[in-house]
Sequence to fold (218 residues):
Amino acid sequence: MPPTVLTARALLLDMDGTLVNSDAVVERIWRRWAERHGLDGDEVMTVVHGRQGHASMAVLLPDRPVEQNLADNARMLAEETADMDGVVEIPGASAFLRALRGLPHALVTSADVPLSTARMAAAGLDLPDVRITAESVGASKPSPEGFLKGAAELGVDPADCLVFEDSGAGIAAGRSAGMRVVGVGPRAGKHNPDITVPDLTQVRPERTQNGTIQVHIN
Fold:
């Protein structure tokens, strides 16, 4: 891929798969859930990335009452928050976040506050000042609500935001919000983001003299 420079006024960052590699714990917990419900674990794993848990359950068990999904989701969030074994940063994430200090950016994650706080800490990453979590929205990705709220919190037009995402649901959410999307990691390339990087070691943001952010992708 030739070097590319993207210009934006704000960056909106997914967490799992984008800043934090939590695949090990996600696989453990969701495969156990799949077994309990007689579902194929591989099929379940194609659905769950990027979505809130109850939204994934609604796709996988469409006839189950919403209240059951919400209760099950609360139990699974507690499980996930207690299990940090194997949670590490995506390569380059810490340097990427350091480079964003003082620049407009926000975390936009389907995790709730306790889980996002625990995973970022386990990966040794600082939390952005602006955070849109599961508690902040009424609809999970692929709804664009989270990204639109992130843009509004930062006071930036959605068209001037650049999203960093790894999942199909997240990439769809960014596109629905009218934003350009940088796909991070192997999952992302399957969902046609504007550009794909293997990790964050090849991404360098910097402020320009006119106040915009230039994102250099090598």
